[in-house]
Amino acid sequence: MTSAVSSGIDGLIARGMAFADLRPRLAIVLVCLAALLPGFFTTPPLDRDESRYAQASRQMLETGDFVEIRYQDEARNKKPAGIYWMQTVTASLFGGAEAAPIWAYRIPSLLGAIGAALATFWVGGVLFNRRVALLGALLLGTSLLTVVEGHIAKTDAMLLFTVVLTMGVMARAYLSARRGEAKPGWGLTTLFWVSMGVGVLIKGPITPMICGLSFLALVLMDRDIKWGARLRPLTGILIMALIAAPWLLAIWIATDGAFFMEAVGNDMLGKVGSSQERHGGIPGYHLLLLSIMFFPASLFVWPALRQAWDDRRNDAVRFCIAWIIPTWLLFELTSTKLPHYVLPTYPALALLVASFVTGASAGAFPTWRKISIALFALVANLLAIASFVTPIVYGNGPVWWSLPLALLISFASFWVARAAWNAPDERTSLRGLVAGVLTMGIVFQITLPLLTDFGLSPMLAQAVERHMGPGDPATVSAGYTEPSLVFALGTDTVLIHPEAAAEHLAQTPGAVALVIGRMNERFLARAAELEMNVELREVVLGYNYSGGDRLEISVYRRTEAVGTNNEVSQ
User: Would you say domain 455-558 falls under CATH 2.40.50?
Assistant: First the structure.
């Protein structure tokens, strides 16, 4: 039975790769969509970054101000406007500021992830060969970190796309110089600098920094800087400036330079010297997470890295090493650490893994291989356990099919691990890819919607809709201030202390106040001072995963105008 299933899946993989050989770009897009679409439309707005980005983009549409970036009344001087502009375009296509759902703001990230996979195919063709390029693109597009970032309305998936495009042109310039071939044409070098300029508009200096570090590493390794002239830097810097400078100048004038003081001084440099928002970690943090974040491509990542070090004199491998190591070391040494910081190095990692499993040396380094396979199976089984257990802890319990699906994930991981143990080749790597896409599809499409406790802001928005009076007055929230609540309720949502919440109800007929449990007494005391009757309409229970605590939030409305009665109706 197991052999028949295995043979059937291998047959499907073989037919899929035959199609991919004929239509590689279409195959990459389809596989990426299979990994990215589960949960894309159903996952509620996430705290805290996604909801801040989406809300700021919504406010651009509401105000028509596409220069300053604001989250409610607060200036959001952290990242440039590029991703906000992209989100406003997609949100406009699906309902605009008033009606666009959160997934409309995620579309640029989805496109960025797919674009990065396609660009990896292009880079892989420059560095290695078509087969390595195709497998590398598929491994990148289905890696857990790429899939997660492709689901979130923020900068990193689109940033990845700009990085891969720039590194692709750099690879052509580097290899053409090494091989004595003609330098890249104007079209390619223009693409390099346009991608660099767009990268600056998305996340400031990160794209130029990664390219610069890689260039410097190659120069130091080869003791040759002349090939850099093939990128036409004088003309290119002008192109990049023409793209980025107009907005940079406009935001300087609009904020009197405050944007740069906060974005560079507080946000970027602040992360280097200290861990911001409790996002710290020891040196080696990103390396320890590699087998998780790179799953399922991590099946052979450790022997592939070992092989790459032995092959470092090979120009293509050398380029990938220069792409990975300087950027990786920089983020390992930075005090603030988040898993997605090293995502721009993943295309090079994916190509090294693809080169390993398609090469004659795929069976090398058995100890490294066994460690890598064991970690792959561990990650898959942890996800299987989580798919069954988390709905019990953070929801209403698993549905009847949760256990069979968890067992399916576990079975698939052991099936892949067994094959990888005996045959570390391309077919086994593709088995791992299929198992990984299956696993992530189950987690994103089936498990996440069962975690009802995590949907606190959507539940509160539904409660407000049930109890709001006529006129659609602004809702106030005392104690619960997550950005997802603002996105769910609208820009005019007021986040204040409990006494002010009571005063708002006294002044605003039909309004609703949301009060966190520990602040109820203060809210009710102030209502009594105002001689105002309030009614507890509903209590919403949920889990605030950003704060790490369970919350009980009361939904209040005034029952009558301010009078002489300080009774509180329950």
Answer: no
